[in-house]
Amino acid sequence: MRFEAKTLEEVYQKVSEYYDKSVSELDIKVIQSPSKGIFGFFSKLAIVEVNNEILETEKTKQEVEPKTKNIEEKIEQKDEEITPLTIQDVQKLVQKEINELFDLSCFDVKNIDVKIYDDETLLFEIDGEDSALLIGKEGYRYNALATMIFTWISQKYGYKTRLEIASFLENQEEMMRKFLEPTIREIEQKGRCKTKSFDGVLVYIALKILREEFPHKYVAIKTNKDGTKYIIVNDFLKKNG
Length: 241
Known about the structure:
The chain is of the alpha+beta class. It has eight helices and nine strands. Strands 1-3-2 form a three-stranded antiparallel sheet, with helices on one face. A three-stranded mixed sheet has the order 4-5-6. Strands 7-9-8 form a three-stranded antiparallel sheet. A hairpin with a 5-residue loop joins strand 8 and strand 9.
């Protein structure tokens, strides 16, 4: 019979409580050792297999099932008692984690700063000799890294992220604001507009700027048949009656 848990200690505890025996009395084989993975992804559970042949009578089942239920109830109670991490707690944790990760990488970057950008967002600031390599041609590597960090933080901690590499995002926003000036004038005159297609992070920068400029209009990203993305700006539809 196989048992799984996050750590070997937890899985041994499960086995011991299930059979009501010490683990030293059982023939246990480790099938898979636990692993934390990277950024909380690709983690592995501890899996063991008990080779003892135990004849389970109805009486044994009646004794084991309540114990298993009690274990599950205890685990649920522990989960309920866990206090959600504040953004300040998360900021300290990921500051340490992301620097440890980049220490193992081939990129030459300075100490990575993780700051609180607002109540829902963490700002990651990266600088160093290999900043250009992290950004990549036309920002494609930046997009990949920004997506990875966002997925890590949003799924594990429930917060948003903003990535800044050697002022790349700040420069892109400044460039986009200038580029959108004719578009903004067109929207002011006609009330609506469809932008050209944008690559990668640029479409999200444009979306942010246009939503700031026109908070009372419908501003959304749309996708062309070829997969490229653009933005439309229009009035919200009014409901009849």
